[in-house]
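Protocol step 4 of 6: record predicted structures for both targets in the notebook before any analysis. Target 1:
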Amino acid sequence: MTRIAISASLLLALLLVSESAAIEITCDTVVGDLQPCLPYIVKGSTQDKPSNACCGGVKTLKASAKSKDDRVQVCNCIKATLKQISNLDPSRAAGLPKACGVPINPAPSPDMDCSQVDEGPMS
């Protein structure tokens, strides 16, 4: 292989790595992962525990929020989304991570302080 071909291959590899590292978690992703939780976190819910789909979404979201910036983004999306749920049961929303066995700090609420997101993976 010539030097130009090797250089071009290395440049392409760098571009692919930097492009994949720049992928952000969007609010659409957050809402999609947590959508199955809605029936559990509303006032008057008859569910005694979150569904498997709900807890699976919580676990997926936690695993995908690798950096502190990701966790702050997720936190802000959750906060904004919870503010839009008129019949939200705040205690169920706050207890959702524990009910799913997934520790997350701060606890989900419309008033959560996203500057308090832990350094670890949404822990």
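Target 2:
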Amino acid sequence: MYAHPDDLHRARSVGANAPAEFAAWVAFQKAVDREDGAVPRRYRELISVAVALVTQCSYCLDVHTAAARRHGVTPEELAEAAFVTASVRAGGTLAHALLADRLYEQHSHSSAPAHG
């Protein structure tokens, strides 16, 4: 549960318990947050918000929504990105439903129905 935004400050203390991994993560984060990439920073933040919506990470949503605003993302862009994200996520559900349908059919050929 995302009850305490101040928990974000705990990252350094958690990282101190895994210094090599934390240093690698910080370096990776710096590379992703750079301003000179082919993908402009405002789009990187929109992508980050979309991923945070899918993963339901409140901390990421907090950090990247703030960064998106700082980098010029409008409320309309944020709203549209949310609906694009919802649509793609729904598509993933349908894709897995297609797999479930095929697996169900395959199981009907390979085993007798269970009796309760």
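Step 5 preliminary note on target 2. The helical segments are 11-16, 19-32, 41-55, 58-70, 75-110. The mean pLDDT is 91.
Proceed to step 6 after PI sign-off.
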